[in-house]
Design goal:
There is one protein chain. The protein is built from four helices and eight strands; from the N terminus they run βαββαβαβαβββ. It has helices spanning 14-21, 37-57, 71-86, 106-115; strands spanning 2-6, 25-27, 34-36, 64-69, 94-98, 120-125, 145-148, 154-155. It has a six-stranded mixed beta sheet, with helices on one face. The chain has a two-stranded antiparallel sheet with strand order 2-3. A hairpin with a 5-residue loop joins β7 (145-148) and β8 (154-155). The chain is globular and about 45 Å long.
Length: 162
């Protein structure tokens, strides 16, 4: 098993804050839809290393998993999308994100959801504002929400909470 974990925004790193705030859309992986420019740029800066490492280490059929928190969740989702759309032989077996912001438009989300059906889990804590940013309608989330309510219960929806 190969696990690639992407870190979230570090409060003392101005570069991370600039990445989070650079929200104009840019073309998505393989020309599918659009993504948050700052997140795409951050992934572009490390993607060649991620790709080379997976090509080097994935030699015996190991499963590959991407995970991340906050900004790292956005990068994990985008890395998964890019691998699935551009390097299918290296596509991840699953993606787990925690507190991921909205990362892409509905077109890319649909392509991602098709490729990662039942292989993505997007955890959101009830008090976390980050998953509500950047605002809709242009940016959206991929499927597979796992909502942690105020009682610590994991739900598949934010609706009908007692």
């Amino acid at each position: 098993m190969i696990i690639t974990a992407f870190r979230g925004t570090e409060p003392t790193q101005i570069k991370d804050w600039l990445t989070d705030g650079t929200a104009p859309p840019t073309r998505g992986p393989d020309g599918k839809g659009h993504v948050h420019h700052g997140f795409a740029e951050a992934l572009d800066s490390i993607y060649p290393d991620v790709l080379a490492t997976l090509e080097e280490w994935r030699t015996n059929g190991q499963t590959v998993w991407f995970t991340g928190h906050s900004l790292g969740g956005a990068l994990a989702m985008l890395a998964g999308a890019r691998m699935f759309l551009e390097e299918p032989r290296l596509a991840a077996d699953g993606v787990y994100t925690f507190g991921q912001p909205r990362t892409c438009d509905p077109t890319l989300a649909a392509a991602y959801n098709k490729g990662y059906k039942n292989r993505t889990y997007r955890f959101v804590n009830n008090n976390d504002i980050v998953p509500q940013l950047p605002p809709e309608p242009f940016y959206t989330h991929v499927n597979a929400l796992r909502y942690i309510d105020s009682h610590g219960r994991i739900r598949e929806s934010m609706l009908n909470l007692d």
